[in-house]
Amino acid sequence: MKKKISKALSILLPILLGVFLTIYAYNSFTPEQLEEIKSYFRNADYTYILIALVFGFISHAARAYRWRFMLEHMGYHSPFKNNFMAVWIAYFMNMTIPRSGEVSRALVLKKYEDIPFDKAFGSIIAERVVDFIILLLFIATAVLLQFDVLKTFLLHTIPAEKLLVYGIVAFVIFLSAILLFIYSKSKWILMIKGKISGLTEGLLSVWRMEKKWSFLFYTAIIWLGYVLTFYTAIFALDETSGISFGVVVTAFVIGSLAISFSNGGFGVFPALISKILALYGISEEAGTAFGWIIWTSQTVQIIILGGLSFLLLPILNRKK
């Protein structure tokens, strides 16, 4: 019973959060501001959004192709078409149940290629470890590029004295967590250690694979595609077309985190993007419209291609 409640909450809470943020944002705008947001939608140059979608498509195709290197390393082969459709189904599923996409990808290969679920799922986890490290590098880059802006924002938001106290408290908590992690015998800590051990093993498996450089090359293509997707979209609105690449990286990181920790970023992505862009002088109306334009276009692409993949998988894999 507890597991069912926990599973239901894991599905409902992100959706409810997205609904709440959407309604809250809508009610916080005056009728004049809402009309201004609508004008941004009407006047946007959607040619750039279409180009952004092409970059997104390329990055997802590269993800599907990269998967073959992990599978071949384990002695399995799956045709590109099935990998490609499995990836789109995964993105589609993540919009309904957070993190269910990884499971659905593995299930697709189990059903159509008879690849053991644990092997396919393990290859996906190994991929995610690499992608997580890349995301951490982007976060570090964003902090370095925008350190002055972030420092000024924090100092204006939180007095220096309180910021110092918070910093000391955070350091003490961090040090305590490290000591607890090293010496504690708690089953929860042991479980976390097991998870970290599994992630380390996944990362090492990438390094040991025969075609690791091909794997890393396609990893670079994936993330370059992600960044270009976001960067190209800024030219759709005059108000965002002048932001620097450093701002793009910062907004991209925030957007990626919003998507990772919610149902595809519903409600959360536009709200966070508007807040980040506001730090750089972009009006809340323009930032909100920009966030919703990107999120909507990407979501429509996922729904269409994910839905088509559901339909085409059994047809293209029909046994003669």
Short description:
It is a multi-pass membrane protein. This protein has 13 helices and no strands.
Describe this structure in words.
The protein is mainly alpha-helical and 320 residues long. The chain has helices spanning 2-28, 31-43, 46-73, 80-94, 100-113, 117-145, 147-157, 160-183, 187-208, 212-233, 245-260, 268-278, 284-316. Helix 4 (80-94) crosses helix 13 (284-316). The longest helix is centred in the last third of the chain and has 33 residues, at 284-316. It has one domain.
Keywords:
single chain; about 325 residues; mainly alpha; 13 helices; about 85% helix; globular; membrane; transmembrane; Flippase-like domain-containing protein; cell membrane; L-PG_synthase/AglD
Order of helices and strands: HHHHHHHHHHHHH
Q: Structural class, from helix and strand content? A: mainly alpha
What is the subunit organization of this protein?
Answer: single chain
Query: For the report, how would you describe the main beta sheet?
Result: none
Quantity of strands, as a count = 0
Q: Overall mean pLDDT score?
A: 80
Report helical residue fraction: over 70%
Proportion in β-strands = under 5%
- Rg (C-alpha, Å): 21 Å
How many helix segments? 13
Count structural domains: 1
Shape: globular
Distance between the termini: 44 Å
Low-confidence segments: none
